[in-house]
Amino acid sequence: MTKTFHEKVFDVSNKVIVLTGSAGRVGSHFSHTLASAGANLILIDKDKKILTIKKEIENKFEVKIFAIIGDITKKQDVKKITKLIQKEFDHVDVLINNAHYVPRTHPKRDSPLEEFPLELWELTIKSNLNGLFLMCQEIGKTMIKQKKGVIVNISSIYGVTGPDQRIYGKSRLNSPAFYSATKGAMVNLTKYLASSWKDYNIRVNTLTLGGVFDKKLHTDKKFVKNYSNKTMIGRMANVDDFDGALLFLTSDASKYMTGSNLIIDGGWTSW
Question: Is 133 contained in some domain?
């Protein structure tokens, strides 16, 4: 059957896509979205849950899928991950940097900046930035060699705007300073990489997400109402609200786009 115009433009079938943070709420959904569109996947996470996600996808879709358990904050792990990928595939089309760490249960996570523990700051910088750096560095070498590739960095609205602390109350859902710092750094690293690797036909963009509703996490109805009122759409995001943007950035539909930040936040940052 002949593909329609939009099916051709947004086509990711048979593309080899590396996805970090695959075991999380957003990452696991992205895995299914990309597989349903025909992409071949390499799922990466420290959590063994990705093995279950791999089986789920294998039972539903006819795509090649590999799950690699590893710590992307460790250079040797990333090198091993890259070798495993090269063993299974002769190229990489897309790298999606989705992994991040938010220590929700740490007793001092809500400390004000003037009292925030350095060790927790350093831990999150390591998780949220060093892993991003190492994955771009190693997979970037592959893309430079093949003179083609796409990188999508998953960021947050708090990488482009300050958090409104008034909406959180006692919910303990507010984001500490490290979150804004690392997500903002991601947006600017995207621009740096897009400029540095332009001659190798490597496009690099950021996909910035608004807050995603989670019925297990967001039990504070007042917070959910406050957050929803900050958006023009009038609600928190559902995880599938980002599917179109994800397919856009990973396909040739975005072939004239690089160094950009696509914000999907229900209008939060547009007031």
Answer: yes
Pairwise CA distance, residues 142 & 91, whole Å:
7
Considering its fold, how many domains does the chain have in total?
1
**3-state DSSP call for residue 77?**
helix
Is 271 a domain residue? Answer: no
- The span from the CA of 50 to the CA of 210, in Å, is 24
Return mean pLDDT, the chain. 93
Q: Which domain holds residue 201?
A: 5-265
Q: Is this structure's pTM higher than 0.90?
A: yes
Q: What is the CATH number of the domain that holds 148?
A: 3.40.50.720
Helix, strand, coil share (%) of the chain residues, nearest 5: 50, 15, 35
How far apart (Å, rounded) are the C-alpha atoms in residues 183 and 208?
9
**How far is residue 263's CA from residue 239's CA, in Å, rounded to a whole number?**
14
How does DSSP classify residue 152?
E
Q: What is the pLDDT of residues 214-229, one digit of tens each?
A: 988 888 899 899 999 9
SS3 37: coil
Distances (CA, A) of 60 to 13, 37, 133, 147: 15, 12, 33, 33
Measured between alpha carbons, how far is residue 116 from residues 34, 107, 110, 159, 160 in Å?
Answer: 38, 11, 8, 19, 22
Q: Residue 264 forms beta bridges with which residues?
A: 209
